[in-house]
What does this fold into?
Amino acid sequence: QVQLVESGGGLVQAGGSLRLSCAASGRTLSGYAMGWFRQAPGKEREFVAAISRSGGNKYYADSVKGRFTISRDNAKNTVSLQMDRLKPEDTAVYYCAAGPASRASFPYSSRAKYDYWGQGTQVTVSS
It folds into this structure.
């Protein structure tokens, strides 16, 4: 079992920045692909960013490419999402997720790739 806890959400003005963190316990994250997803009110949960277990490969949704940066520190068992130039449409609950790196049949953008999910952290961007 992997327990994931997100932090770093909050209220920020458009154009501002936030850094989300995801801390894991229970198992080392080095064997897991990690992802960030978000869910806005009335919408489905959508892919934001993902990173391979080594950190060598990173993937982003088109809507956040160039503004968000995902990173991981396997020694500290953490994953982060740096969000810059935030827009009101980035407002959502953000979730951290972990999935076995061996589950290669699913793309990093698919929720099916991930077994473990955090409780989420709210990000609100005001205009």
In short: The CA atoms of residues 32 and 95 lie 16 Å apart. The first strand starts at residue 3 and ends at 7.
